[in-house]
Specification:
This protein is an alpha/beta fold. The chain is built from eight helices and seven strands; from the N terminus they run E-H-E-H-E-H-E-H-E-H-E-H-H-H-E. It comes from Micromonospora marina.
Length: 249
Amino acid sequence: MERSTPRAAVVTGAGTGIGRATARSLATSGYAVLAVGRRAAPLSETAAGRPDITPLTADVTAPDGPDRVVRAALDRYGRLDVLVNNAGVAGGGLLAELDEDAARRQLETNLFAPIRLAHAAVEALAATRGVIVNVTTSVGLRAWPGSSVYAAGKAALDSLTRSWAVELAPRGVRVVAVAPGAIDTPIGVHSGLSPEQRAAVRDWQLAHTPAGRIGRPEDVAWAIRRLCEPEAGFVTGVVLPVDGGAVVA
């Protein structure tokens, strides 16, 4: 496709944290960005003062959610070059105390929504030789007792990344993933953890992160942006940990 218009990106979960940082980073790099999320107010904050970011309030788990998101991007920009599957929800619970509804919500958002979004976007991405970026977790490479459903859903997305990379390579579409470790985002608040529980989790994460600090959303956004650049054209199927060394410690 001719570069008559700026490259276009869709970033889900763009209202806060990694999604917000990624939307802004891609926009700074020259992308027109459709920032997708469930809540209008945080999306407006993401797009504030940035005419290159357009907020779209949408639920990616809704039956028409993925098609609506892709259609909105194509209607506005006429093309789609990058899909960042970042929207995610976390939750805990031991197997013996399984909450099926909570488990289903996690898998709907963290696994099935990226599958359906990639399916909806693949033709548009093939037209631009574009990139799918899945945001997973470095915990998916290890055991996480008490959050097994979350870890399993993200590990499945790692596997899909590798399979899609091989499947879509003949069509010119690259598929990569970033696997964040301990990052300073509101996900703990959104998952319902108390301040004391969040502090305990952070203490544990810090103790198991060789870099000696909690990561910033911008650390992950940098990795995503670099993986989307034309210079990364020979990189596909990779799952890149962005975790301060936690996965290898």
